[in-house]
Amino acid sequence: MATNPYFTTPYTPTRPRMFNTSVAKVIWTLVPLVSLGLAAAVPFVVAAVKGVVKPWLAITYVVGELVIFGSVFLISPKDGDAGAPFAGLLLILMMITAATHTALLDNEKINVGK
């Protein structure tokens, strides 16, 4: 009996999934929003532990979150300070960016960090 390469080649391992259901995807996407950005990097750390993304992406998110929160806390609102709205804008942009990227963790078309 001749060997067939279609029968003898091993299966290519599939990339692990971050979300098992749509409900899990919605819950994980809401984490950065509900926590007001304090847990923006948590979905990426979990994805790195699961093997969905590379660890450098999770580290980048943790460092980025620390830099953004550090700069927001350094901008102290004083009487007549025009920099106070900028701190809020930074937090809102971080929350929106983290929620969008969390929703895209299982997207097959995105290859950065996977």
Automatic annotation (TrEMBL):
Record keywords, A-Z: Membrane, Transmembrane, Transmembrane helix
Segments crossing the lipid bilayer: 26-49, 56-76, 82-105
Domain of life of the organism encoding this protein: Bacteria
Protein name: Uncharacterized protein
Organism: Streptomyces echinatus
